[in-house]
Fold these 3 entries.
Entry 1:
Amino acid sequence: MNSEIHQKPPIAAIATPVGEGGIAVIRISGMNAISKVSEIFKGKDLSKQDSHTVHFGKIVDKKGFPVDEVLVTLFHSPKSYTGEETVEISCHGGVLVTQKVLETILATGVKAAEAGEFTQRAFLNGKLDLDQAEAVADLIHAKSLKAVDAAHQQLEGRLGEHIKQFRQQIIDATAMIELELDFIEEDVEFANKEQLQKLLEDLDTEIRSLLETYEAGRLVKDGVKTVIIGRPNAGKSTLLNTLVGSDRAIVTEIAGTTRDTIDADWSYDGLLFKLIDTAGLRKTDDVVEAEGVRRSQKAFEQADLVMYLKDLSHPFNEEERVEIAHFQKRSGDTPFILIGTKADAEADMEWRTEFDVKISAHEQQNIDTLKKLLKDRALENKHYDASSLLVTSTRHRDSLQKTLEHVQAAINGLKMNMTGDFLSIDLRAALQELGAITGEITNEDILDSIFSRFCIGK
Ligand SMILES: Nc1nc2c(ncn2[C@@H]2O[C@H](COP(=O)(O)OP(=O)(O)OP(=O)(O)O)[C@@H](O)[C@H]2O)c(=O)[nH]1
Ligand SMILES: [Mg+2]
């Protein structure tokens, strides 16, 4: 990491959420941040205090009127989040008082921070790699405990470690090639060809296995889009309500009650499910209902997990059998769970079929079994291991994918007896891609799009 700290002009922002609370924190970072705060602080002389100390005093405006009683925490450069001189003012947590403290500091000529500007400075000062900075945003936006775990792993630098190891392997390979290039005039046989090939093939395998975690990583980070489909009156909305534990959707005995898709977030065992209740599937002349059915189909197509519900209180008809087979087939690789509902009122079925689970929402039968099944099926065949690192970002996945392509090109080149200088081109391109993940090689656009995801004050 870069140890050279560059201090930019100071910026300030409210770092805590807007609203009423016990305290709020305003953060100021940049060159002379402490002396800027001293201009509006009545208490000890802050310029004479040590780093990592806390001081009680008052914020006063230009005319000397008190704004609030506060605690200020001082961080001398480079020992702060951004690496710059930093002050955190803890004031009373009212919306207006917090705003007033911020305005008072801005009136001294400190600039209001942009979204993610503190973290961007931390990155530019080498306090964090780019993937770690992204993990900070993921942590803030995490909506499930598993997403928090995944972000923590990345923040601790576990992805960075893998990338560094891959880079080292490529550098080793390049060194072997350069050795060959040095002796090319003397017509020396490429002694380490097999060794080089093995090194690159091992790298290929390792990148692949990291890439394979992306599907699970995406589900853990964004949640599992889980669609509930079936005929009208199958008990879809009842199941949604049962899972989320509230009357989110309207339930009636009238077939065709749900007209539009209804979304609800539900967490189970640390995993977020984005449940989507849909309009019952049937042919209809009702324009509104027909649009609802079209939306059900669309939700089905975008799902990560499908629950098809069949009302067990009615025997199957031919149309239903065709429909179930059709959806099962169209699900392809997306897990499809066939659920029998209203098990408390089960009718005689002529057509025996294997339900994954039979439930009764009214009598709470097998609801826990269903919940567990949802989690197992959502992550099955996704190379998910609770303790291992997951690739969760499309940006990282894309860079790893490109790295893999360059490594494969080098392997192919080697097999075709291409000369070392050709192989070096591919390996250098692979290094570039890996560098983009940790931020050693970046461009402005990427940085802007990454840091704009942050909230102001982070
Ligand atoms: N006996 C019994 N009835 C149930 C159960 N679950 C739902 N029902 C009833 O089935 C009827 C339809 O339930 P809904 O949840 O509205 O069904 P839906 O699939 O959302 O129906 P549409 O929105 O019209 O497509 C209601 O009268 C529910 O009370 C159950 O476990 N047992
Ligand atoms: Mg419904």
Entry 2:
Amino acid sequence: MSFTETLRDKAAFFVSKRNLHKVMNSEEIEDVLESIRNYSGRGFYDKIRLAQIEEELYNLCRRVIEHKPRIITEIGTWNGGTFYVWTRINPQAEKIISIDLPSGQFGGGYDEKRIKFFREFASDRKNTELYFIRGDSKSKETTDKLSAILQKDKIDFLYIDGDHTYEGIKKDFYIYLNFMSEKGLIGFHDINTYKEGYGVVKFWNEIKSRYRHEEFIREGSRVMGNGLIYLNS
Ligand SMILES: C[S@@+](CC[C@H](N)C(=O)[O-])C[C@H]1O[C@@H](n2cnc3c(N)ncnc32)[C@H](O)[C@@H]1O
């Protein structure tokens, strides 16, 4: 980055951070979703984009907050939409970990530069640490980094929204199951996406009956959808 670009980026970050803090004023799910719509930043930090049907995410969030997760991990963060939501609706969370593959399929990941903006999501929380692993969720390097962050902790809520191929989601599920707490929850996005190259529907239909589970799908929709399984059942 040239000197001028660096200065421009600093100015954009300064304004974006100030605007973010203006909208980040409630932990209620509705308000958090609204704050994403109201947020307007500058330059590299112009928006927090959410790849979700809000009604479906809202219903999933209601279950997540009942569970009061202390340790949260998200596979697939992209522009930070759901990462922002998990952070803001869970003030009790201690570790929130994002795993995303730079230039990954189904979104494209996030630039290293954006991490400082994502960190602002919890800048008012003394007890919450945010972690960012930019790598393939299925690689040993990534799971080693995750183990180092978790130490003795287990994941209470895992959200899988990364590699959407059948093989990809299946591997993610079985790898990350090893990191889950006994009473953990696992959320899946795109359980209702019927598009070429998307294998979540097939995998979800295979495993859901093994667990107590819920589906959050907007009536009449044939896209997106959130699924949730309860491991203690
Ligand atoms: C649909 S986006 C996530 C959207 C986000 N959860 C939201 O709703 O706001 C999917 C993300 O998964 C990431 N991804 C794809 N394959 C991955 C992999 N193997 N490991 C980690 N992340 C991956 C992509 O880079 C992309 O950023």
Entry 3:
Amino acid sequence: MNRHQMFKELTEAFGPSGYEDDVRKIMIRHLEATTEVSTDRLGSVVGFHEGDPRGPKVLIAGHMDEVGFMVKQVTKQGYINFLPVGGWWPQVLLSQRVKVRTRKGDFEGIIGSKPPHMMKDEERKKPPEMDNLFIDVGVVGEKGAAEIDARPGDPIVPVGDFSALENGVLAAKAWDNRIGCAVVAEMAADIKKGLKTHPNRLYLAASVQEEVGLRGARTLAGLIEPDIAIALDVSLAYDMPGGDSDAVEKFGSGAAILVSDSTMIPNIKLRNFVIDVAESEGIKYHLTSLRGGYDTGAIHTTKIGVPSLALGLPSRYIHSHVSAIYEEDYVALLELVKAVVKRLDAAKLTEIANFS
Ligand SMILES: [Zn+2]
């Protein structure tokens, strides 16, 4: 399987928060390259590989879940009212395709609303409200709805195909955060090839329920009790109309090192160490901050504290049906994580976690 095939499989997989089963199956297949695969009781999955039994426990994690929806109720006419799962901006929902998963299987539908022809002038000027949107799966009336057996709580995801655009730009749904899963998968593949030498106990993980509040990361940290943690996720690119032309965060600016987000201030020694590694290896990187949180927000306060850092890559149009990344930035992120893991040994942990 080449890299684009892996991207396609991961991004097109069904996996809203709490319903990550399909993505987990894919990740377990990748993580079988490690020596031991286990799960916690919320559904996060981790592959373990021992480089040095005296080395620190290093956790590298990306989340499997994507923003989606769930069935709120089915109307008498057979339409589905829905609730958001994760952060959505209703403007991006109109006329989009979705997949509803019920006990009878997967059903494709479209998010509908009244066409402008039926709206009064005032109504036409306003953005849509989520409450007024509905999903049309093509069934008619209660009897039709009974055939697909949609029930409150059934999960729904956007439908979107992976595609390579011009110039190394890759479009797909759910780059947030199958891109983190992809890095974890490629690191596991390196172990299989025997390429990985690392002076630590490495935990390659894929977490659940990040989009609803970093919930899987918390239990994952409980399972592993890591000494050092790095979360991988998307960060923002500002190089678009209406963005910020002065911003360093753009396609081609390499791996993102998060100096701050809404949930964590990173360990500064770990942050500086990662910057030094990027510079000595000639890996493109930039520093950024973000409103929002990464899995490390939940991990770093585990027990006595876990020195942590979040790494990302610039992304456009996230939390919608189609987002975009730049392949070279992905490669920079992958190379940076690999280079860091190669150097995280017992002495480095002492240096990073020493506050006396
Ligand atoms: Zn994310």
